[in-house]
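So, can you check this one?
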Amino acid sequence: MHPLLSLASILTTATSLLANQVGPVPYTHGSTGYDVSYPQCGGAYPAGAFGVVGVNGGYPFVHYNPCLADEYRHSPLAALYINTGYDPVYTQLDGQHTTPECLTTSTPIQGSAQQRAAWAVGCSEASRSIAYATSQGVASPRVWWLDVETENSWSSTDLSLNQYTIQGIVDTLHRHSAAAVGIYSNGYQWRTIAGGLPVSGVRANWVATGSPSADDARTRCGTGFTGAPVWLVQYLHGGFDTNYVC
């Protein structure tokens, strides 16, 4: 049983979660693609079999990629990634952070008041990112990836708040989309942020590395940092973030 959700929450999301845990991998083994976001605005597009486009402008909530629509349109078999993070400021109902809908949805979540608030933060990050993507004409990405990196804000004193935030994002994406949900991070960053605490509904991992080549990236395939299979391994090529499909 999911350690964070009430039975009612499990039942309401079971169909969506099941749909996202089965089905073929939406990438061709051995192919390579790229990821782009706001830093690439106005520049030339790299070549690749697929693209992953950032929704946000490096941080969740008020920061968004102004080139999302154009980058998505120029990216084959495009997926989206969203920036994630937890900060007590994000729990505020101030029109920019936690949404009233997500606060209400968090009510049956099992946990402390702080943990429910963190889940609502994640729900809100997902909801606002979905809304922005939809406003840019992007409604059906191939995959939703969560960018979980130490550069963004996270709790260092209570890792369960980070866990609940990530779970809120995953649950909300499953509720609104049939696309698979995966996490972009690496072993060190994932342990630092989530501390080995479980997050359910994650189908795949995308490994953040400093690999210099596809050959090196290939050696990093296998079981990912969350226990899910690795679908993508990032490496640098030609000045762009390139990704090898495991």
